[in-house]
Amino acid sequence: MTKIRDEKYLKALGNRIRQIRTNKNRSTYDLSYGSSVSRSQINAIEKGDINTTICTLKALADALDVKIKDLVDF
Fold first, then answer.
1. Segment holding 3, helix H or strand E
2. What confidence tens digit (pLDDT) does each residue in 17-61 have?
3. Computed over its alpha carbons, how large is the radius of gyration of the chain?
4. Burial (CB count within 10 angstroms: exposed 0-12, middle 13-18, buried 19+), residue 40
5. 17-33 burial string, b = 16+ CB within 10 Å, else e?
6. How many angstroms separate the Cα of 42 from the Cα of each of 10, 14, 25, 33?
7. How far, rounded to the nearest angstrom, does the alpha carbon of residue 21 sit from its chain's CA centroid?
8. CA 18 → CA 1, 14, 58, distances in Å?
9. Model pTM?
10. Domains, in order of start, for the chain
């Protein structure tokens, strides 16, 4: 089985999530509390270290009051 992982894409996704979060003046603590996603996982996503799930993206989008498509619009 081939492992599919695009480092540039993961970094771009993480940067976009961080950008939205900081534009809304939200800390990783606030985002963690609102999404039930751990701060360590949010940090790893924002750094592009992990390939997250669509369900986690939905939780983050809901907590940031945006649509999933806004998170991946980069």
1. none
2. 999 999 999 999 999 999 999 999 999 999 999 999 999 999 999
3. 12
4. exposed
5. bbebbeeeebebeebbe
6. 13, 9, 15, 11
7. 9
8. 32, 6, 15
9. 0.90
10. 7-66 (1.10.260.40)
